[in-house]
Amino acid sequence: xxxxxxxxxxxxxxxxxxxxxxxxxxxxxxxxxxxxxxxxxxxxxxxxxxxxxxxxxxxxxxxxxxxxxxxxxxxxxxxxxxxxxxxxxxxxxxxxxxxxxxxxxxxxxxxxxxxxxxxxxxxxxxxxxxxxxxxxxxxxxxxxxxxxxxxxxxxxxxxxxxxxxxxxxxxxxxxxxxxxxxxxxxxxxxxxxxxxxxxxxxxxxxxxxxxxxxxxxxxxxxxxxxxxxxxxxxxxxxxxxxxxxxxxxxxxxxxxxxxxxxxxxxxxxxxxxxxxxxxxxxxxxxxxxxxxxxxxxxxxxxxxxxxxxxxxxxxxxxxxxxxxxxxxxxxxxxxxxxxxxxxxxxxxxxxxxxxxxxxxxxxxxxxxxxxxxxxxxxxxxxxxxxxxxxxxxxxxxxxxxxxxxxxxxxxxxxxxxxxxxxxxxxxxxxxxxxxxxxxxxxxxxxxxxxxxxxxxxxxxxxxxxxxxxxxxxxxxxxxxxxxxxxxxxxxxxxxxxxxxxxxxxxxxxxxxxxxxxxxxxxxxxxxxxxxxxxxxxxxxxxxxxxxxxxxxxxxxxxxxxxxxxxxxxxxxxxxxxxxxxxxxxxxxxxxxxxxxxxxxxxxxxxxxxxxxxxxxxxxxxxxxxxxxxxxxxxxxxxxxxxxxxxxxxxxxxxxxxxxxxxxxxxxxxxxxxxxxxxxxxxxxxxxxxxxxxxxxxxxxxxxxxxxxxxxxxxxxxxxxxxxxxxxxxxxxxxxxxxxxxxxxxxxxxxxxxxxxxxxxxxxxxxxxxxxxxxxxxxxxxxxxxxxxxxxxxxxxxxxxxxxxxxxxxxxxxxxxxxxxxx
Length: 822
Prior knowledge:
Blueprint: E1 3-7, E2 9-11, E3 14-16, E4 19-20, H1 30-44, E5 48-54, E6 58-60, E7 64-73, E8 85-92, E9 97-105, E10 110-116, E11 124-131, E12 144-151, E13 171-176, E14 187-194, E15 204-209, E16 214-219, E17 225-230, E18 238-243, E19 249-253, E20 262-267, E21 274-281, E22 290-297, E23 300-308, E24 313-319, E25 326-333, E26 339-347, E27 354-359, E28 363-364, E29 369-377, E30 387-394, H2 408-413, H3 436-446, H4 454-457, E31 473-480, E32 491-497, E33 503-509, E34 515-521, E35 526-534, E36 543-546, H5 572-591, E37 620-623, H6 626-629, H7 635-639, E38 646-649, E39 656-659, E40 663-664, E41 667-668, E42 672-675, E43 678-680, H8 682-686, E44 693-699, E45 715-720, E46 737-743, E47 771-779, E48 785-791, E49 798-806, E50 812-821
Parallel strand pairs: 6-12, 28-50, 42-45
Antiparallel strand pairs: 1-4, 1-23, 2-3, 5-7, 7-10, 8-9, 8-11, 11-12, 13-14, 14-17, 15-16, 15-18, 18-19, 20-21, 21-24, 22-23, 22-25, 25-26, 27-29, 29-48, 30-47, 30-49, 31-34, 31-36, 32-33, 32-35, 35-46, 37-44, 38-39, 40-41, 42-43, 44-45, 49-50
């Protein structure tokens, strides 16, 4: 065998490269270029991953979705402390629209938040979607998604039971291993059979050639998946006949084989030390050259090997200890350096955490204090620091409807690197399932994988990413002329008004194409922003648009999610308790509304106060009206001759301003300028549109001392219409101006749960909450331990407790506990 191999082992963050070659590489050969471009691509476009834990899988309107996001870097699964912003959308399946958009502040790779479900939301199926700004550079297939169901207390939920008519044709897909069949070479074909609802179907069948010969039989192994072997013959076409439980048989064509090419087969089951790769080809003797095989996992090279095309059958063994835990990709390039085969394998290293949850006792009384001890150890049994989120729910109301549902472990190691929906992902990580690794290997043969395209990787240069890693909120947009042509460099002024009346004023410029971006913003809730654009000295005939006020579009071509289906009366107790809780909340709100008798209050009228001012009475005030603004070129020009003692002279576009008496031996001392209480440059005031100004205060002498030495020349304080709390932005159509409301970071709310060891009046209310406790930020100490306490409700029920978390080094874990309330 004539093979040359390069292996990569990653230890402690460093890449050690033992080179095992039958003969040396030339400096310009394909394996060298392949390794170089592969590294360059993943350096330019590193991956991020996001996972979100919620307190439960379904809700009624009026409840709150409590959630905690985890951010990881793609290659190592380290806690991602670079991205500081996490976006979460609630999508309605039926309308394919984003109905709720949240922006969460991420710190050290973690982000807590919630979504209060308003009464206007329709009952039905929803999807929770989460992503970072950087992830928007890639396919939405790798955004985190989680199906949720929202119910109404007055609407009966969807009932179980299939209304599917008999003899409905199932969906069947065939996947030749490695990507293709070749005449005369034995290959394997994986298949997946699904029902119209997208669930795997257990089936059996046989394969028949066009000559009428039965060449293979097959049956599904797990969730509608399986495989069979076939050696296609020249001139023959093959059909699979799939038999359903009702006895009906449905024909499906199998992809035709190619007359010549390569077949790639992988054995990831039978050898405990190595993954075996079989490469066969039927290329004619006239074809010379070398094929190349690259093995990589999450953007990190594991091994590159080459072999001679003249060898029609080659076996390559890849040591398992080279693989990190999770999915790896094996790609075969032919003698022309084109990718012709690809196969996924899953490497199990058991580097996961053990999360042990221990209640202080197995049985509690209603409203009794529950103490939960948490202990986390790594795969070697050593205690580790871990960040966890924990949900405790009433099992009588929150049913575990989905068998082997997704969790942090299954998502990080499996689902996050695959396209499409994986049914029962937790099955593949339960050691009690003895066939799980074999079934997982079949899953690797049937599930789509396209995180990148090799044609893109092998380019000499890469386009810069459109979305950068976000250290804070981003404001991006574009300025154009009314005819939509590029204006060139435009001067920009940004004025942000928060709900607490604080303001920020920023100035800058667009690029030559009118594009602009402001990075690293940090504000909570919603903030109103006014953007003004000026071209040259005073040209405001421009249009401004923002790019990031909306979340990514929903591009599902087929909706793979289905609302959770319930048996009749399964949720009777849950819906009853939810309705009672909502009725009590409404009554409390009504009780707070007190009707007063009509009274007359007599008081001397006070001058209205402006929260933007830090001073009392101004020396002079000029209220602007249309007679003043008509024809005025600048705000400062309006002052000329209208306020005693204020002299505006020189070039109207760059005037000199002096308040009488403000001079020394060095010459004129110009006043301090402010806009809505924020000190700015004179140019910023000149850049304001005269139509945006409400009034101007002038402070002279002692009145200006509150601003200190910088106001030795007095103060000219400009107040805009937009700065007032009652300004109607819908009526603002000033040219070169855009007013918008920006969504900020969501304020983190604390999960409320009553503490029954502290008597309070509200404790007389009945307590049947479905979620007893939600703790999104639990941190174990150096001994791997932490403790959580909460109280049981009035329900005599079983309580399920689930904790998910990960170490900063990327090891995930999930723990569960059950306790009784009697």
